[in-house]
Inverse folding.
């Protein structure tokens, strides 16, 4: 099972900070006399964090910059939490900080950027989303010298920023992935809830037009509609199944949220969306857009049908609404890449210049390249949509299995392969080619059995089979002690020596329905249609982005 903002605050319930994220740099850019859309000027402090280093092509264009924008009341620091950075930015992650230059700005009014609570209070300019995006653009272009973005993405408010970026600077990015947002004016229940939050503070006499010296009691009252916005009916029911538990949870949430807020910062942040409305500009977006919402999102409920309807107007737009599962967290699903990572991987692949697989080699298993000598011990690294793991192989454990596995990895067979059978507490299995043509070529290329030398303990890797001498291309990783399989002839040839926590997070909610076991007779559609079938019917399956022999 995987690890269990509108608001970055929702993530406070779900995660802890990562302490091992490398090379996090912080800085600030002072934009002199920044002119706000609704009037007023300010020497604006734009705070930011970055990971990684900028890479440029021969023409000087930046090729690896990724902009990630936070939600209302959040900050860029929220993306350094384990559930996000530990999946995306870690070595082998989809946005590996060793490959990408990650930019995490604090929006105007948030984090360590200029905000009302710095001292101006109620005199702080009433900024808008357009102001916030324009300030970020100036940060990137004038200070960080980023002239192009590989990807623009964001959560909630940051998702809405993504739409604004798309039509305001249409030639500036390769791809857009807004999360938990809608590309229309803030209206209906969404605006009602926002106004309830604002009014709860402003109607409190102790607010004093923003000139208070202690936080007004109305700030606590504003937390009630705020909590409803980020709530997940399923998760709240699971977390608080009795009246007493529900009331205790509510009291705790109010205290936690109110204790992290400033009243003016809250008002300004929520009211900044008042003029947001990408709808008239959607045709101006040039970059491919993949917009992702969750069906249990109380801010952007799926019954509105807005996401699907409006995204169609984007020339290269795709809308996705994730189904409610025990993994989703309502609006906060936007900060759990363990769920939507496969979609991000496909977007990156679709918008990148990639070498085509060597189908000539993959469809000729009789080639001498598939029978060359292999090392006695070697390590294979698998970079997946969930992160990276490594398998160390011992030829002495299962010589024939080790050799077959070595050649499959080295020659690119597993690149793009879906991990289609994940049974919690049992195994994670993969090995059916994305290409039906390749699957057909390998259909009758089974190897003879090896004696069982190493036991099927947790983390061990062996070939799947349907009977004697039927091992082919499919392998499994034991998620538990499966030593009972030893007597059936399943011979491990290696074991996971790094990243077992990644293996444990692989998407398992489809169970056997996504392809099942070899004996189950459910793999026919995968063999006949390849990844096209899995992407259509089981889009949340994790898959292997790249597999290779370490050191070769």
């Amino acid at each position: 099972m995987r690890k269990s903002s509108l608001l970055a605050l929702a993530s406070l319930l779900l995660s802890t900070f990562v302490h091992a994220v490398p090379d996090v740099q912080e800085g600030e850019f002072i934009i002199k006399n920044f002119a706000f859309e609704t009037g007023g000027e300010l020497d604006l402090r734009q705070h930011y964090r970055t990971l990684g280093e900028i890479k440029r092509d021969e023409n000087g264009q930046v090729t690896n910059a990724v902009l990630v924008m936070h939600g209302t009341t959040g900050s860029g620091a929220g993306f350094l939490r384990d559930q996000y950075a530990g999946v995306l930015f870690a070595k082998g992650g989809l946005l590996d900080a060793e490959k990408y230059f990650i930019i995490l700005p604090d929006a105007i009014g948030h984090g360590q950027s200029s905000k009302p609570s710095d001292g101006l209070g109620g005199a702080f300019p009433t900024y808008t989303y357009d102001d916030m995006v324009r300030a970020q653009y100036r940060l990137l272009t004038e200070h960080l010298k980023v002239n192009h973005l590989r990807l623009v993405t964001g959560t909630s408010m940051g998702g809405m920023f993504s739409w604004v970026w798309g039509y305001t600077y249409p030639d500036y990015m390769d791809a857009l992935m807004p999360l938990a947002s809608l590309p229309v004016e803030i209206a209906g229940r969404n605006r009602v809830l926002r106004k309830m939050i604002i009014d709860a503070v402003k109607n409190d006499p102790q607010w004093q037009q923003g000139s208070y010296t202690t936080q007004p009691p109305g700030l606590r009252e504003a937390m009630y509609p705020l909590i409803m916005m980020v709530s997940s009916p399923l998760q709240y029911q699971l977390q608080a199944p009795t009246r007493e538990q529900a009331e205790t949870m509510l009291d705790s949430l109010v205290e936690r949220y109110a204790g992290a807020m400033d009243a003016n910062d809250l008002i300004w942040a929520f009211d900044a969306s008042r003029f947001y409305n990408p709808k008239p500009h959607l045709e101006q977006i040039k970059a491919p857009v993949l917009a992702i919402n969750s069906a249990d999102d109380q801010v952007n409920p799926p019954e509105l049908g807005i996401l699907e309807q409006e995204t169609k107007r984007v020339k290269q737009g795709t809308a996705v609404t994730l189904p409610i599962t025990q993994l989703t967290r309502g609006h906060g699903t936007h900060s759990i890449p363990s769920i939507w990572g496969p979609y991000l991987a496909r977007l990156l692949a679709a918008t990148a210049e990639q070498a085509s697989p060597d189908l000539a080699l993959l469809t000729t298993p009789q080639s001498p390249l598939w029978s060359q000598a292999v090392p006695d011990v070697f390590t294979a690294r698998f970079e997946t949509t969930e992160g990276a793991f490594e398998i160390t192989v011992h030829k002495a454990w299962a010589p024939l299995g080790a050799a077959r596995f070595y050649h499959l990895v080295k020659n690119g067979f597993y690149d793009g392969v879906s991990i289609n059978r994940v049974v919690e507490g049992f195994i994670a299995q993969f090995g059916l080619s994305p290409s039906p043509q390749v699957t057909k070529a390998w259909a009758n290329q089974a190897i003879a059995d090896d004696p069982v030398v190493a036991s099927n303990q947790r983390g061990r890797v062996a070939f799947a089979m349907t009977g004697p001498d039927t091992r082919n291309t499919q392998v499994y990783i034991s998620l538990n002690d499966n030593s009972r399989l030893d007597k059936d002839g399943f011979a491990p040839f290696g074991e996971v020596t790094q990243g077992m926590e990644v293996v444990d997070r692989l998407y398992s909610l489809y169970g056997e329905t996504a392809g099942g076991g070899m004996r189950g007779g459910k793999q026919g559609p995968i063999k006949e249609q390849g990844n096209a079938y899995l992407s259509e019917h089981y889009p949340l399956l994790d898959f292997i982005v790249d597999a290779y022999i370490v050191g070769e």
Remarks:
- The two ends are 33 Å apart (CA to CA).
- The longest strand covers residues 24-35.
